[in-house]
Amino acid sequence: MLGEISQEVRDQILDEEHLRLLSIGHYITGGFTIAIASLFIFHFVFFLLIARNPELFGGHSNAQAPPAGLMNFLGVIIGLFIVAGWAYGSLTIYVGRCIKRRVRRTLTIVVACLNTLAMPFGTVLGVFTLMVLTRPRVKRLYSDADSLSQTSL
């Protein structure tokens, strides 16, 4: 019975499985990115706490305390890093959802290119995503999903 399955059906099953695995990979990588960015919340609070209360760092003498402006600046930089990590992780999770639904192929390719910069997991995920999404059969899966969504509106 398995010998009777055509090569086209095998390729379609393989494409569906690869897209399912890519979707899971995007969920995991996005969650991992959010978790890593969240680790810096402690640093953010620490810098802002020192900027607001320099006596905590230098005792009663402000001569040894770091400048409040520097601590505010570092707190803002760390805060921007946290927000950027959350946004990037959320976008990666959203792209995993888009892969599952077979929509927004261009956005998925753009995020896959960005993922290649995040070594080592993002690089592997980005390269595999680009390999799968550039297949002609997968392009057709996305165009079929787009045409179905247009007719259902």
In short:
This protein has 153 residues and is mostly helical. It is 80% helix and 0% strand.
Describe this structure in words.
It is a single chain. The chain has 153 residues and is mainly α. The protein has one domain. Helix content is 80%, strand content 0%. It has seven helices and no strands. Helix 4 packs across helix 5. The chain starts with 6 loop residues before the first helix and ends with a helix.
Which labels suit this protein?
mainly alpha, 153 residues, 0% strand, single chain
What share of residues is helical? over 70%
Backbone CA Rg: 23 Å
Biggest beta sheet summary: none
The gross shape turns out to be rod-shaped
Give the total of beta strands: 0
Question: In terms of topology, how is this protein built?
Answer:
Elements: H1 7-38, H2 41-52, H3 55-58, H4 68-101, H5 105-115, H6 121-133, H7 136-152
Helix pairs in contact: 1-4, 1-6, 2-4, 4-5, 5-6
